[in-house]
Amino acid sequence: MNLTLHVWRQSGPRDEGRFETFKPEGITESMSFLDMLDLVNEEITVDGGEPIAFEHDCREGICGSCGMVVNGVAHGPEKLVTACQLHMRSFSDGDEIWVEPWRASAFPVMRDLVVDRSSFDRIIQAGGYVSIRTGSAQDANAIPVPKPNADRAFDAAACIGCGACVAACPNASAMLFTSAKAAHLSYLPQGQTERLERAVGMVAIHDEEGFGNCTNHGACQEVCPKGISVDYISRLNRDLLKANLTGVEPGD
Amino acid sequence: MRRVLSLFDSTVGKKAVMAVSGLILFGFVFAHMAGNLKAFEGQESFDAYAQFLRDLGYPALPEYGVLWIARIVLLLAVAVHIIAAIQLWSRSRKARGSRYRKSDSQVFSYASRTMRWGGVIVALFVVYHLLHLTTGTVHPDFEYGSVYANLVVAFQSVPVVLFYVVAVGALSLHLYHGLWSVFSTLGVQNPKIDRIRRPLAGGVAFVLFAGYVAVPLGVLSGIISL
Lengths: 252, 226
Prior knowledge:
The complex is a heterodimer. Chain A has 8 helices and 7 strands, in the order ββαβββββααααααα. In chain A, α2 packs antiparallel against α6, α5 packs across α8 (231-246) and α6 packs across α8. In chain A, the strands form 2 sheets. Chain A has a 5-stranded mixed beta sheet with strand order 2-1-5-3-4. A two-stranded antiparallel sheet of chain A has the order 6-7. The N and C termini of chain A lie far apart (59 Å). The longest helix of chain A has 16 residues, at 231-246. By secondary structure, chain A is of the alpha+beta class. Chain B has helices spanning 2-7, 11-36, 43-55, 65-96, 110-113, 115-134, 147-154, 158-185, 191-220. In chain B, α2 (11-36) crosses α4, α2 crosses α9 and α6 (115-134) crosses α8. The radius of gyration of chain B is 20 Å and the shape is globular. Chains A and B meet through α6, α7 and α8 of A and α1, α2, α4 and α8 of B.
C-alpha cells in the first residue's frame, strides 16, 4: 500500500509541534495501525532520526494505552476498536492519513502522540471506589443483584479509560468516562452508600481538571471502543442534582 | 437558596439551570404560537385576545399585572440561560486547547452543531421582534393597541416575512436539540421516554415552526387581511 502519512511531532510539552510527512514503503493491509507506525519508526531510526512516540501495551484492544486521532476520528474510522485493533485494510491505496494526539487541555501532550492522562486518575481518586472492608470473598449469591443492573454495571465497567470520549467531544468533556466509572458502582448494592458523594466528588474534580461540559452531541458514544452509552451521563447528572438539592457534600 | 446557588458551581449544575430556564422559555414560545394562531379568527377575536392578556389577573392584580410578572420571569430566564451558556462556551474553548487539523463532525446532528450560533441568532431576533411588534420602534405604521392591524401591516413586506421564517427555523432547530437534551441533563432515566424523546422533540419543533410561519405567510397570501 502506498500512503501519505502526516504525523504530529512535538518534542516536549512546551514545544509548539508540527506535522511531519512520511511516505512509508512496505505497508500491507494485514498490518495494524500501530504495526504501520512501528515500520515508519524503523525507517526513521535507520536514518538516525527520533522515532514517533506513541503509547501502546497489550495491542489487543483491552488495556486503554493506545489512542490517536486518525483523520479527525478518535481511534480511526472503524467502530468499537482502539487504534491497535485498527487495520490498514480500513484504508485504500493512495490515501492521505492525518495522525494527531488527543487534544484537550486536561490531556497535555508530552511528546508526539503521547498525552498525559493522569487527570483521569484524579477523577477516580475523587470517588471512583467503594470504601468498605471487603474481607475474604463472599458466597457468590450472598448479595442479590437484579440481572439488568448487573448487566448495566458490567457494560459501564468495560471502560478502559483510553480518553477517546474526551478527544472526540467538541467540548473536551470527560462526562462519558466519569459517568461510566460512577455507574459501574452505582448499579450495584455495594456502591449505594457513597453514591451521592461519589457523584459530587467526581464531577467536581472533572471540572477542576479543565474538562468541558456535556452538550449531548453523542460524539463520545460514537468513538468509544467499548460502546459505552451516553445514558450513564444522564444517571450521573441525576445523582449530582439529587446530591445538590439535598445538600450532600463530597466526603459526607 | 444556597443549594440552588451551589448548583452553579459545577458544569452539570449549570446545564440543569440552562435546562430549567430553557423549559420556561419553551413554555412561553409554545403559548405565544398558540396565541398567534388566533389571527386566523379575524381582527375582533385577535384584539380581544390581546386585551385579555393585558387584563389577566385584574382586579386581583393591577392592569398589566400578570403580563409584567410573566415578562420579568421570562427576562430572568433569558438572562440566566445566556449567562450559563456563555460561561460553558468559554469553558469548552479552554478545555479543547489547541484545535485539530482535521476533524470529522459527521456524528453530530446539524441542530447540535448550530446550538450556540443558533441561540445568538434567536436572541438577536427577539430584540428585533420586540422593537417591531411590541414597542413598534422599527414598525412602518405602528398604532398602540391595534394588535391585528400592526401585524397585517408588518407582514406585507416580503423581506420581513423571509427574515421571520429564517429566525423561526433557527428557533425550531435550537428547541429540537434543547428539548431532547433536557431529559438527559435533568437525569430523567426511563427507557420508555428515552425511546420517544427524539421523535417527540422533532415533532414539537416542527409544530412550532409550522404554527409560527403560518401567520406571516397567511398575511402575505391574503388569508389574514384588514
